[in-house]
Design a protein that fits this description.
The protein is mainly alpha-helical. It has 6 helices and no strands.
């Protein structure tokens, strides 16, 4: 997950480099006498990594615009906290100051997407960023009384 503008710029540059590299590899394999099917098989991993990075860049661009995915599982809340921090242009260091913890701690928490964080920690992070949560619990069809 891209978590800051520097990583975003690097990812965009990497996408450009990947496109050029994939084209060069196609040409190299063609010159080696491989047929189209063999070439496609050979470059499939390159394309897969390229597409994954492209999705990360698109996700970062969406959250910068304030477009967030709904949270359907509590384990997804970490991604939303990181996305919101990015959206409000708050750095990890600013968040650390507000939480009165080290920047390394915030970096670790975000690297793990707040996995295993206590409810108190999640609330503290939300409060530091001026967030508030509304929880809507729905009963799945066929369950209940």
């Amino acid at each position: 997950m891209i978590k800051n503008e520097t990583a975003y710029q690097k990812a965009q540059e990497k996408l450009k480099q990947d496109k050029d590299f994939i084209l060069k590899e196609k040409m190299r394999f063609k010159e080696m006498g491989l047929n189209d099917e063999q070439i496609n098989m050979a470059i499939e991993p390159l394309i897969s990594f390229h597409e994954q990075l492209k999705e990360e860049v698109e996700y970062y661009e969406r959250i910068k615009r304030g477009s967030f995915n709904p949270i359907h599982k509590f384990t997804d809340i970490g991604k939303s906290l990181i996305a919101y921090r990015i959206y409000i242009n708050m750095t990890q260091s600013e968040l650390a100051r507000k939480l009165e913890v080290s920047e390394a701690q915030v970096s670790r928490d975000e690297r793990n997407e707040y996995y295993g964080a206590t409810a108190e920690k999640i609330e503290a992070v939300m409060s530091a960023m001026g967030m508030r949560a509304t929880i809507n619990i729905e009963v799945a069809t066929g369950l209940g009384a």
